[in-house]
Amino acid sequence: MAKIKDIELGAFPLLLAPMEAVSDPPFRKMCKELGADVVYTEFISAEGLIRSASKSVKKLDIYESERPVGIQIYGNVLAGMLKTVEIVAESKPDFIDLNFGCPVHKIANRGAGAGMLRDIDYMVKLTDAIVKHSPLPVTVKTRLGWDHQSIIIGEVAERLQDVGIAALTIHGRTRQQMYKGEADWKPIAEVKNNPRIHIPIFGNGDVTTPEKAKEMRDVYGLDGAMIGRASIGNPWFFKQVKHFLQTGEHLSSPTIEERVEISKKHLRHAMEWKGEKVGLFETRRHYTGYFKGIPNFKEYRLKLVTAPTEEEVLKMLDEILLVFRDI
Description:
With 327 residues, the protein is α/β, with parallel strands linked by helices. Helix content is 44%, strand content 14%. It has two domains: 2-247, Aldolase class I (TIM Barrel); 256-323, Putative flavin oxidoreducatase, domain 2 (Non-ribosomal Peptide Synthetase Peptidyl Carrier Protein, Chain A, Orthogonal Bundle), CATH 1.10.1200.
């Protein structure tokens, strides 16, 4: 049974990764309804929260139906991160996650995100201060190391655990790799199998099929799987993985009825969250994934992403249901 402090997550929880411009409340709700055990917000800039930047503050929105939910933050200035913890705690997430893994140049090269992997002493000092300052459990997401010459995740895991983090998620790539090449789960398993480690160790990177999730559980012995890109446009992935882990069998692809239903739900929640205009616009990026694999769908996708009103989107979805019902 994996736990973040006193929060029980189940025997092998599936976690929705914090993804910029993807893991917003409407999408998190879809994933939660379809089997995600834990969800994370998009990562949030500490600097943006301190400045009360509207885009950053909006990312703090969480809802009871999402729990357990973690708010992920990034930054590298100690005083600013402590102030950010206070701001985040007011939103009452179940835990706070520290992003020490984002490889994007403008973040990592400024010493935040995966940039922390270039100064482990400071990473530990910062984490120690945050854990002591936070009224909520603190978790960390990071990578194997900065590059292949500095894969130091074993040392990092021990030191972060020693200053009190409640769980650790490890992406099986270095910062230098970005998202290229294959994720290496062996160093993650070595962390998990270290007799000194007693906190949950979650794996991330290349969990793209139910078989991969099973391998992460049964071969590598990890405590849970964090799922990112495989869920984009496919929140059914969590349900498919759980079914496979329980039965060894694959669920069939979602029906056209299920695809239309989730498109309508997502649109409704997006408009409730951000208003009709923005909600309508931000839902468009999901339609390609929701209807992926449907033959001869290009014309309808174009109409969906250009429909100017909720009424026209719903009308088009009803038409899609009729046209593709027998596929």
